[in-house]
Design goal:
Order of helices and strands: HHHEEH
Distance between the termini: 37 Å
Largest sheet: 2 strands, antiparallel
Helix content: 40-55%
Number of domains: 2
Radius of gyration: 18 Å
Strand content: 5-15%
Strand order of the largest sheet: 1-2
């Protein structure tokens, strides 16, 4: 839900309602966390992303579900496994 809030610039209650509506339309029986619970948990979350300077281009491949992100070289091996 935090990703939806950031992506669409929605307040907590609106993001909660949006996800509930989306799940209903998609026929998914899945609960959406309460916006106040999520707000408390997100305030305690600390994420630090390391900045690694690169001289060359960086290749990133994201699968269609967005669950797995492959780095260069790794996705080439996965493609061969699926085809073969």
């Amino acid at each position: 839900m935090g990703t939806i809030q950031s992506l669409f610039h929605l307040p907590g209650r609106q993001a909660e309602g949006f996800l509930e509506s989306l799940f209903i339309v998609m026929g998914i029986e899945l609960g959406v966390p309460d916006h106040s619970t999520l707000s408390r948990r997100l305030s305690k979350l600390s994420v630090e992303l390391p900045v690694v300077p690169k001289d060359k281009a960086v290749h990133v491949v994201v699968d269609s579900t967005g669950v797995k992100v492959y780095g260069e070289g790794e996705w080439k091996g996965v493609q061969r496994e699926k085809v073969g």
